[in-house]
Design a protein that fits this description.
homodimer; globular; DNA-binding
DNA sequence: GCCGTGATGTTCAAACCCGAACAACAAGTC
DNA sequence: GACTTGTTGTTCGGGTTTGAACATCACGGC
């Protein structure tokens, strides 16, 4: 019990001003952008951001279908959260569930035609928001740096469960 | 009604591969990091990330107190979300509410001594996570670029309500 | 074939967030 | 002072996420 805190107690490497600024800017900006995106999607099609992301992934998949677990990994959602959202999208007629032929327990989330049309209708407005507040404000150089930086962290997080 | 969609319909400037990669990396990484942080904070002190952020802001404020609205802006939370979290922190004895002397409707969130001690105990472990997965993996150059990039977006989002 | 281990997707209760509605007050105008 | 306008913080209902528990099935060794 005692040495569970040993490392933290002995080595508090605090963030300096530059590091603190980077971290706070990162977190605050994401939340603000997320809020703006939710607002736009809800007004345009009654969709939430997680729901939109699901439609995007399915539209990019072969045969417009994906296993639940793989889809959950892609959109970074818990299994139960994905179950809930797929149920919602099913009620809206944008997604269907299908049995997985290769695995008896498996479930496939399938994008319907209505779902594809919905995505095509909503995507331009969504992209416009992402552009207006993030992409178009960054130089090619900045974009590239941010991508490599994010990937380093993503890789580290995904490889440690 | 017709030209509400005009711009989007006429000008669907899709994201190219580089832009798409940047955007997806940004969103995915944040969610993964957020998940890891929540896990660490909950295990260490039964705190959520929003709650931790509140304690941090209060500890940095003069007299360890802040108006609700200002605090909500800082941590990027809705008014009702902050009301809820302050109530939770009050139950845990980490924060108290006080009347605002200069404004009769105002409420001050005040960090208690127990709250300060809690923060001091938890902060090292939290910082360690932020370092291990983000800060320490980025060069000084990358950190600076990311900060300026985030700030551009933050500024744009905050100035448009 | 038969366990043991692990993966898959769902269910459930609890916690949490959002937005609209609301009462109370501030600040300025007339 | 009364009126208007805007701000402050809370409340409430509905929607969403979480993590643990669970039933079901895949896969390997023996």
């Amino acid at each position: 019990m005692a040495y569970a805190y040993t490392e933290a107690v002995m080595d508090p490497r605090w963030l300096d001003a530059t590091e603190m600024a980077a971290w706070h800017a990162f977190v605050s900006t994401f939340h603000l952008l997320e809020r703006r995106i939710e607002e736009q999607l809800k007004a345009a099609a009654g969709l939430t951001h997680p729901q939109y992301e699901i439609l995007v992934r399915l539209s990019a998949a072969t045969d417009h279908r994906m296993r639940m677990t793989e889809l959950a990994r892609d959109v970074v959602a818990s299994k139960s959260a994905l179950t809930y959202q797929i149920t919602q999208l099913e009620k809206a007629g944008l997604v269907e569930r299908a049995h997985c032929p290769s695995d008896e327990r498996g479930v496939l989330a399938v994008l319907t035609d209505a779902g594809m049309r919905c995505l095509e209708r909503v995507a331009p407005g969504h992209v416009e928001v992402v552009r207006a507040y993030l992409i178009d404000r960054l130089s090619r150089e900045e974009l590239h740096t941010m991508t490599t930086a994010m990937r380093k962290t993503e890789r580290a997080l995904r490889s440690s469960h």
